[in-house]
Amino acid sequence: MATLITPALVCALRPHGEHGAIARLLTPGHGLLAGYVRGGRSRQLRPVLLPGNAVKAEFRARTEEQLAGLTVELEHSRAPLLAEPLPAAAIDWVCALTAVALPEGTPYPALHQALDGVLGAVEAAPAARGWAVALIRYELLLLAELGFGLDLSRCAATGGNEELAYVSPRSAAAVSRAGAVGYEDRLLPLPAFLLEGGAGDWPALLDGLRLTGFFLERSVLTDWRVDVLAARERLVDRLKRAVA
After folding, report:
1. Cα–Cα distance measured from residue 10 to residue 151, given in angstroms and rounded to the nearest whole number
2. Cβ atoms of 85 and 238 closer than 8 Å
3. Which of 7, 92, 112, 128 has the fewest CB atoms found within 10 Å of its own CB?
4. Cα separation of 159 and 168, whole Å?
5. Contact between residue 105 and residue 33 where contact means Cβ atoms under 8 Å apart
6. Which residues pair with 4 in a beta bridge?
7. What is the CA radius of gyration of the chain?
């Protein structure tokens, strides 16, 4: 990559040097990319490099191994949402997850489109019922894209596809009510909206977050990445308080 100009979504930012910053952006055609932004912590650039913002990015590097220099131009700001606790927690989590889970330089066009969809849903409907399903489906898609997808097509115990109501934490496969008899307390609830589409009520949404959270923690957010789970815990805690 000598020069790359691309639309991108800001996922993470960390200080580098006295005034600069390293930004991690999700691009549609080149996946997650990191770049050094000169003056990235300046008053001018801080509002541009907020997680969730859509930017036009220009990466410049002499070699593939070199950290690219990065300049950004704001295309769409989601800064107003960061003043609202629930939308802010959702944006913080979904962007942090993307930044730590994906390998750099591997294209994930479906994830870029889905992340843009989640951020758009949060923007369009700040009430959590309007975007929680999109966030859960994004987590499921990320698991699948990284090779840890759940098999929700048929029961792992009976082979049938009727009354699928649980997921095995061991095999990540669906289990029907009949196949789960006697083992219900060892399985994860499978909310109906993940099979039938549409929205779910609050108990179903919390079950969905519990389901994806289990597999994200087990398969993706391991080792040093476990720190990012604090962002998810804040989100789930705020959702539970909102329901209560």
Report:
1. 31
2. yes
3. 7
4. 14
5. yes
6. 59
7. 19
Of 98, 210, 26, the closest CA to residue 35 belongs to 26
- Cβ neighbours around 14 below 10 Å, total: 12
The distance between the two most distant Cα atoms of the chain, rounded to a whole number of Å, is: 62
Residue 37 and residue 202: Cα distance in Å, rounded? 41
pLDDT of amino acid 180 = 95
Three-state secondary-structure class, residue 21: strand
Whole-number pLDDT of residue 199: 83
pLDDT at 226: 63
**Cα(190)–Cα(177) distance, rounded to whole angstroms?**
11
Residues contacting 127, CB < 8 A, separation 6+: none
Single out the residue of 65, 55, 1 nearest to residue 23, CA to CA.
55
- Residue showing tokens 């894209």: 145
Over the chain (244 residues), what is each successive 10-residue block's mean pLDDT?
91 88 97 93 91 97 85 96 93 96 96 97 87 96 97 94 96 96 96 90 94 95 78 92 81
| pLDDT given for residue 197 in this prediction | 87
Q: What is the pLDDT of residue 223?
A: 75
CB 69 within 8 A of CB 22: no
